[in-house]
Amino acid sequence: MKKLSARRRHPLAAVVVLLLALAATGGLYAAFAPADKAQADETAQSLAIDEGKKLYAVGCASCHGTGGQGTSDGPSLVGVGAAAVDFQVGTGRMPAQQPGAQVPRKKVIYNQAQIDQLAAYVASLGAGPSVPNDKQYNPEGADIGKGGELFRSNCAQCHNFTGEGGALTHGKFAPTLEDVDPKHIYEAMQTGPQNMPSFPDTTMPEKEKKDIIAYLDAVNGDKTASPGGLKLGGLGPVSEGLFAWIFGLGALIAVAVWVAARTAKAKKS
Prior knowledge:
The protein is mostly helical.
């Protein structure tokens, strides 16, 4: 007893007791809290899927099928992932107003909570790209110059060098990228909506997607800045061809008239 009392009076006794208490508390938390949190997350996810299924049955099933298997009026949604839903519904493209060559962007009819529920349900049908977080698409600190190179190599053929969009074939078009949420641009590159090819991380890494978003933010940030005057390329991807057609063809006609006049004059003389 004397030895035990002496140990209790030791200067480090309080520290040892405190450390033991902290270790016990940490052990109990590790044993019970993660399981509770995981269970709560699983319950929340299950509820989101159930609510998303209800929304899907009302707004999507008529075209995409009751189980997302697709119909003659809409493609299968199995494996498209939550990112595709967040993009299509978050930009108002879905639900579509009517069939056509391409579904345009329009007013969004669902709030973000409902979009998340729809995305959760569609994601449950098959694995696919998930909705990106802010760190993935935030252009802060990205390489704008590199983004411009990547955009001109992979995107400008349809969207124009500054992302202002333009006409394609058979009634299709590349939409303008002005005033588009960076998250939706990232999701479009991930999922390849409608006529656009997809650029998964295996093809275009996350950093390169951020560089492209930074480039678009830079070229579309100031609508009044155009140091070179009227930017021909900014009028659309066919503007250069239209310019060549009008002035080039006009020049050819002028040359043809001049040659004909010279020939007629030579014959008379």
